[in-house]
């Protein structure tokens, strides 16, 4: 039976995590949950932790509707949870790192900073297959209880079957519209957009501080990109790989040093 680690960057209390773990468990996977004890959004693939006497602090938890599924709150980042899981911290090492469901899309340049994606990439770096899943919160006024977590969970579980046929280092980045399943227009492979949905700007600079703010980029959505397809009501999937060397030619390095 495929063993699946469920993690996220929104924290172990996140409803998206609970619905994803429930869906994977109901589908017959051997599920273990290990997620940050608190929100770690934007952690990327950082592996920092709170330690006591050189030990990463881990607390067992019971999650709603998941009797018999072991769950752990980790006082560290999602990538750290994935990394130590591959080393047997939570029992048998997982075959798959399934990360999410994130509050908000991880599309375009946002994947660089995403703890959700960072956990899946870390798992892939250390021998697991990976799937990161995010729910596009187009309507910011809804509460968590009104979100369609189950739609994203169903797409994620369905995509798990594709991982066996892909190179082991591959991570799938899934974004799903916040819609009932019968209103999602389909699932498309998408390329990254060049611009994020929002961008950071400097709102204020002062003595000893900088204050930032987020604003809509107003950028045109390029056809075929993850952000454009999400806006049109499609779920999107983009294959990723962990960090690797770029296939580019460099100049004569000895000559560069001589010139310096």
Describe the structure.
Keywords: Cytoplasm, Hydrolase, Metal-binding, Nucleotide-binding. The structure is a single chain. This protein is an alpha/beta fold. It has one domain: Survival protein SurE-like phosphatase/nucleotidase (Stationary-phase Survival Protein Sure Homolog, Chain: A). The protein is built from 6 helices and 13 strands. The chain has helices at residues 15-26, 78-86, 115-125, 149-163, 226-231, 253-259; strands spanning 3-7, 30-36, 51-52, 55-56, 58-61, 71-74, 96-103, 129-136, 171-177, 187-189, 198-206, 209-216, 235-240. The strands form 3 sheets. The protein has a 9-stranded mixed β-sheet. Strands 3-4 form a two-stranded antiparallel ribbon. Strands 11-12 form a two-stranded antiparallel sheet. Strand 11 and strand 12 form a beta hairpin.
Would you summarize the structure shown here?
With 260 residues, the protein is of the alpha/beta class.
Shape: globular
Task: Report the total helices.
Answer: 6
Rg over CA atoms? 19 Å
**H/E element sequence:** EHEEEEEHEHEHEEEEHEH
For the biggest β-sheet, the strand order reads: 5-6-2-1-7-8-9-13-10
Please tell me the overall pLDDT: 89
The number of distinct structural domains comes to 1
Q: In CATH, what is the homologous superfamily? A: Survival protein SurE-like phosphatase/nucleotidase
Tell me which CATH architecture applies here: 3-Layer(aba) Sandwich
Subcellular location: Cytoplasm
Keywords: Cytoplasm, Hydrolase, Metal-binding, Nucleotide-binding
EC number: 3.1.3.5
Organism: Catellatospora methionotrophica
């Amino acid at each position: 039976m495929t063993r699946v680690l469920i993690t996220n960057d929104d924290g172990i209390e996140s409803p998206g995590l609970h619905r994803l773990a429930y869906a994977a468990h109901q589908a017959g996977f051997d599920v273990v949950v290990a997620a940050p004890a608190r929100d770690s959004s934007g952690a990327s693939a950082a592996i920092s932790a709170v330690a006591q006497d050189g030990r990463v602090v881990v607390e067992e938890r019971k999650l709603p509707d998941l009797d018999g599924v072991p769950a752990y709150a980790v006082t560290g980042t999602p990538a750290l949870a994935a990394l130590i899981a591959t080393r047997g911290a939570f029992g048998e090492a997982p075959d798959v790192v399934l990360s999410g469901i994130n509050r908000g899309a991880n599309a375009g340049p946002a994947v660089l900073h995403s703890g959700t994606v960072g956990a899946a990439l870390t798992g892939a770096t250390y021998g697991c297959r990976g799937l990161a899943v995010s729910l596009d919160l187009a309507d910011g006024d809804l509460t968590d209880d009104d979100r369609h977590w189950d739609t994203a969970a169903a797409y994620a579980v369905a995509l798990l079957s594709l991982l066996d046929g892909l190179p082991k280092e591959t991570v799938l980045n899934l974004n799903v519209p916040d819609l009932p399943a019968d209103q999602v227009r389909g699932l498309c492979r998408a390329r990254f957009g060049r611009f994020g949905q929002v961008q950071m700007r400097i709102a204020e600079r002062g003595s000893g501080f900088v204050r930032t703010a987020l604003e809509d980029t107003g950028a045109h959505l390029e056809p075929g990109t993850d952000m454009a397809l999400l806006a049109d009501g499609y779920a999107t999937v983009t294959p990723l790989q962990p960090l690797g060397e770029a296939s580019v030619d460099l100049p004569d390095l000895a000559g560069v040093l001589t010139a310096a």
